[in-house]
Amino acid sequence: MHAAVLIAGAGDVGMRVAGRFVALGHPVFALRRHPPGAAPAGVTWLRGDLTEPGSLTGLPAVATVIYAPTPASRDEGAYRSVFVHGLRHLIQALPTAPTRTVFASSTAVYGEQGGGWVDEDTPPDPPGFNGRVLLEAERWLGLAGVGGVAVRLAGLYGPGRTQLLDRLREGNASVPRGRGIYANRIHVEDAAAALVHVARLAEPAPVYIGVDDTPVPIDVLYDYLATLAGGPVPPEGPPPAGVGNKRLSNARLRASGFRCAWPDARQGYAALV
Predict the structure, then answer these.
(1) Quick one: which of 227, 224, 232, 242 has its CA closest to 173?
(2) N or C: where does the chain have the smaller number of CB atoms within 10 Å of the terminal CB?
(3) Please, are residues 76 and 59 in contact by the beta-carbon 8 Å criterion?
């Protein structure tokens, strides 16, 4: 029998992770505030609210935790409640300390880099509250004695995450042109696979960047996707707010043996269409 896994925050990414662990033969527990009916085969629902420690009772002993919750709203209080306090509540509520805890963090911990390459040795410089809160949670986890590893995920896309395609199809997106501003993406299935891969490494590094192999100038990506979606070429406009300009490297993740099924977002988006 393989060791048990707890998915804390069993939303889209979390349930994709759960399915992969089930396929590998692991018993999987999935924690949600409101479990949605019957659980998928191999998964046991647990009811609990990460922001309410009194609700986290009777949790099973597990060897691995995947921490991938979604805040209730996009403000600092909600982020701090689920990522900082919620992580502590969960670890304290478990009957035994897990040997591996993988935190689904974000590349929002990096600031403006002038289009330069960014890897795990690049000093974090979060420009917004989201990156600051995630970095605080990462640092707490690294000292908690529960085998903490942070996977800093880039922008997710994939089934159910087609808002950009919809905006381009409708002519509701603009793009900065000719300024060398890069987009960094990872397919949601590759994100889930990366979390599972890191959880199963014998001696993981403390931090990995979860991104595909191919940073693409954002105007090149948007023009390609507009054609793919059957929309107009997007006009000149400002870059997306709060993400900075950088080329994210997945060299450390690749060196650990991981390979993206979708190494270039253009391929991944084309498969969606």
Answers:
(1) 232
(2) N
(3) no
Structure-derived torsion over alpha carbons of residues 248, 73, 87, 92, reported in degrees to the nearest 10: 180
Compute the Cα dihedral for 260, 265, 268, 272 and give only its sign.
positive
d(CA 251, CA 91): 30
Other C-beta atoms closer than 10 Å to the C-beta of 191 total 27
pTM greater than 0.90: yes
User: Which pLDDT tens digits describe the chain residue by residue (273 residues)?
Assistant: 589 999 999 999 999 999 999 999 999 999 999 998 889 999 999 999 999 999 999 999 999 999 999 998 999 999 999 999 999 999 999 999 999 999 999 999 998 778 899 999 999 999 899 999 999 999 999 999 999 999 999 999 999 999 999 999 999 999 999 888 999 999 999 999 999 999 999 999 999 999 999 999 999 999 999 999 999 999 999 887 777 789 999 999 999 999 999 999 999 999 998
| Three-state SS letters, 242-257 | CCCCCEECCHHHHHCC
Give the whole-angstrom CA distance, residue 98 versus residue 5.
9
Q: Which DSSP helix (H) or strand (E) runs through 141?
A: helix 129-142
Q: What secondary structure letter does DSSP report for 55?
A: G
User: For tokens 């014998």, what's the residue?
Assistant: 202
How far is the C-alpha of 195 from the C-alpha of 74, rounded, in Å? Answer: 23
**Residues near 40 by beta carbon (within 8 Å), at least 6 away in sequence:** 15, 18, 19, 22
DSSP-derived secondary structure letter, 81: I
